[in-house]
Amino acid sequence: LFFFFFFVCLFVCCVCLLKCYRIVGMGVYGGIEGGGTKTVIHLYDEEHNLIAEAVGEGSNLWSIGLEEAAKRIHDLLVKVRTQANIEEPLLSLGLTLSGAEQEAANKELIGLLEKSCSDMSATFHLWTDTFGPIYSACPNGGVVLIAGTGSNCVLLKPDGQMISCGGWGHMMGDEGSAYDITRTALKRVFDQKQNFMQEGRDESIEYLDKAMQNYYNVNNCKDMLDHLYKNFSKDAYAGFAVKVAEGAKIGDSACTAVFNEVARRLALHLVAIDPSVPAPLSSNLHVVCEGSVWKSWDLIKPAFVETLKAKCTSIKKLTLVRLKVSAAVGAAYLGATHSSLPFNIDFASTTQTLDAIEL
Fold first, then answer.
1. pLDDT confidence of residue 10
2. Least crowded by CB within 10 Å, which of 113, 267, 277, 357?
3. Among 30-34, 70-74, 233-237, 341-345, which is the least confidently predicted range?
4. Secondary structure string (H, E, C) spanning the chain
5. What phi, psi does 53 have (nearest 5°)?
6. What is the C-alpha separation between 146 and 236, in angstroms, rounded?
7. CB 63 within 8 A of CB 129
8. What number of other Cβ atoms are within 10 A of residue 120's Cβ?
């Protein structure tokens, strides 16, 4: 009996030692996918095995500021490294963050991270949030079309050149996003109550009006002013899009009209990059569809496809795919490769097909 327990304990110790060797000996890579609503960090070994993950608050640079973004990233690093029982610095950390569009701001954030997190990662590399999805799925060329709280679109050419459309936030853009769905729906309620721009609109707003009152806990349009200005929260505001989707699914005509209108604007991102799509990609352009709006593809598809068929001239076929993994994979891949370190991804296993469209 003594020898039995001895060998059991020895086996457990060996397993633990192997795990420690695997983490320290092989090296650990980090990837962060940061949006306006949440931030996800993943740690991987060199064979693309997930070691640990953690989730924190949103990290959009322009919404919360650079210092707060650096603090949230620091706290996530502490959390995930403690979870994985890692003491040595990561070999690299790739970050793809919402709002990381401006070079000067990006450099400042990297500087803050190098000061506060220098003991947790050997290197830090930062890109905007569109890079994570596209480098998780098609690093040799394709498109990422984000339709979440906000929207953005980037074409990656085989030579590495990037062509973008959108990404300006709700004050100047976000067409095709949950924010856009909410604004379009609420505008119909406000407009019809004042008989404003009603030509060609004969859909009842009864469902939308009641849904607005219940979701925002208001009695009328004037009560909405607090949500629209003093206590405006983009995430909370855009969340109403779920109620619009629920209405469209039960056949409400106004909700259906909203989705058709927003779907056309979402498709226009691809129309904008269409002239720039090179021949090798145009025959079957892979589009990585990121964001919660794509969960309502059945509601988006009719007007989306109609718009593309009417306006695209270069793209012949689209294959829409959804990631089966976090875009933090792409962030980790970018961080490693830009640190001249190996990081292997089986790109064929990172996506699943949403739809294929012949144009």
1. 53
2. 357
3. 341-345
4. CHHHHHHHHHHHHHHHHHHHHHHHHHCCEEEEEECCCEEEEEEECCCCCEEEEEEEECCCHHHHCHHHHHHHHHHHHHHHHHHHCCCCCECEEEEEECCCCCHHHHHHHHHHHHHHCCCCECCEEEEECCHHHHHHHCCCCEEEEEECCCEEEEEECCCCCEEEEECCCCCCCCCCCHHHHHHHHHHHHHHHHCCCCCCCCCCCCHHHHHHHHHHHCCCCCHHHHHHHHHCCCHHHHHCCHHHHHHHHHCCCHHHHHHHHHHHHHHHHHHHHHHHHCCHHHHCCEEEEEECHHHHHHHHHHHHHHHHHHHHCCCCCEEEEEEECCCCHHHHHHHHHHCCCCCCCCCHHHCEEEEEEEEC
5. -150, 155
6. 19
7. no
8. 21
Alpha carbons 2 and 127: distance in angstroms, whole number: 57
CA dihedral of 328, 331, 333, 336, whole degrees rounded to 10 = -120
| Tokens standing for residue 263 | 């779907």
Structure tokens at 36: 């306006």
Residue 19, CA atoms < 13 Å, CB-side half-sphere: 12
Greater model confidence, 19 or 57: 57
- CA 72/CA 211 separation, integer angstroms: 34
Separation CA 31–CA 136 (nearest Å): 11
pTM of this structure: 0.83
- pLDDT of 225-278, one tens digit each? 999 999 998 989 999 999 999 999 999 999 999 999 999 999 999 999 999 999
Residue with tokens 């799925």: 137
Nearest to 146 by CA among 269, 59, 44: 269
Pairwise CA distance, residues 357 & 11, whole Å? 54
Q: In what order do the strands lie in the sheet with 162-166?
A: 162-166, 151-156, 142-147, 285-290, 317-323, 351-358
Q: Spell out the residues 6+ positions from residue 11 whose beta carbon is closer than 8 angstroms to its own.
A: none
**Could you give the CA distance from residue 69 to residue 60 in angstroms, rounded to a whole number?**
7
